[in-house]
């Protein structure tokens, strides 16, 4: 039987109540950051801690398919921002009417404002062509890379560092700007920098774009939709 009283739970998990609360605090207050970045550079040892958190993520077959390209150069970040702007113009046209105007009003990146860009990539060849756990679903290496990003994002939250994930790019543009080989997948451009405030709720929710769904509508028991 699993223990349920507080002391037994702490003993079993190795986490004190305060430590458990800290984990949930980081999860619940993590935000995607676009416009609140401070210009101060991130210390190298702090960046190293964030990358170490990322590097301890789970990965299919322990493949560790990720690479991290650290971009401090303002000139390179300006080129990346221009690639975003071009893709974003295309993206805006995919929404109709008032939705397009609402889309245009959103700020969806902080590429130049954030002092550090982190391009996270996935190398599908990292551990040979046959990978334990990836044999029937080749996307598993990308999923693993996303786990690394989430680790980094949560560690950053605890360090007072804001992260903004930008995905509005043509992949070829990023590859060409950063010299990324053809067989490598670009998974994310992360804007990273200190922040002194964060939204309490997702910015897209605050700005009326889309609201959080009720969890109970998303959970099924013993099969798709059987509890409705
Ligand atoms: C894969 C992926 C890709 C993107 C994002 C996230 C993820 C997971 N998000 C951030 C996204 O909008 C945000 O996570 C949600 O709106 C929820 O807000 P919080 O992250 O809780 O603040 C995001 N935000 C943005 O402004 N521009 C973007 O291009 C993207 N791209």
From TrEMBL:
Give the EC number(s) under which this enzyme is classified. Answer: 1.13.11.79
* Alphabetic keyword roster: Flavoprotein, FMN, Oxidoreductase
List the Pfam families: Nitroreductase
The protein's enzyme class? oxidoreductase
Family matches, as SUPFAM superfamilies: FMN-dependent nitroreductase-like
Q: Which residues form the Nitroreductase domain?
A: 27-193
GO MF, one annotated term: 5,6-dimethylbenzimidazole synthase activity
- Which CDD domains does this one have? BluB
Q: Which domain of life is it from?
A: Bacteria
Q: Which PANTHER family match?
A: IODOTYROSINE DEIODINASE 1, NADPH NITROREDUCTASE
Family annotation (NCBIfam families): BluB
What name does the UniProt record give this protein?
A: 5,6-dimethylbenzimidazole synthase
Name the species this protein comes from.
Rhizobium changzhiense
């Amino acid at each position: 039987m699993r223990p349920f009283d507080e002391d037994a739970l702490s003993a079993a998990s190795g986490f004190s109540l305060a430590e458990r609360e800290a984990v949930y605090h980081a999860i619940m207050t993590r935000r995607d950051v676009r416009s609140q970045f401070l210009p101060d550079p991130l210390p190298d040892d702090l960046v190293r801690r964030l990358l170490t958190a990322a590097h301890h993520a789970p990965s299919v077959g322990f493949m560790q398919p990720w690479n991290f390209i650290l971009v401090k150069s303002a000139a390179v970040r300006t080129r990346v921002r221009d690639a975003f702007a071009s893709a974003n113009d295309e993206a805006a046209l995919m929404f109709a009417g008032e939705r397009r105007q609402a889309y245009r009003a959103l700020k969806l990146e902080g590429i130049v404002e954030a002092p550090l860009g982190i391009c996270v990539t996935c190398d599908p060849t990292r551990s040979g062509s046959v990978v334990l756990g990836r044999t029937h679903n080749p996307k598993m290496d990308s999923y693993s890379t996303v786990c690394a990003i989430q680790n980094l994002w949560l560690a950053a939250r605890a360090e007072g560092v804001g992260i903004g994930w930008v995905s509005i790019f043509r992949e070829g543009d990023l590859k060409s700007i950063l010299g990324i080989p053809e067989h490598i997948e670009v998974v994310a451009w992360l804007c990273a920098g200190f922040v002194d405030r964060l939204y309490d709720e997702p910015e897209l929710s605050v700005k009326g774009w889309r609201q959080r769904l009720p969890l109970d509508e998303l959970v099924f028991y013993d099969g798709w939709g059987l509890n409705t």
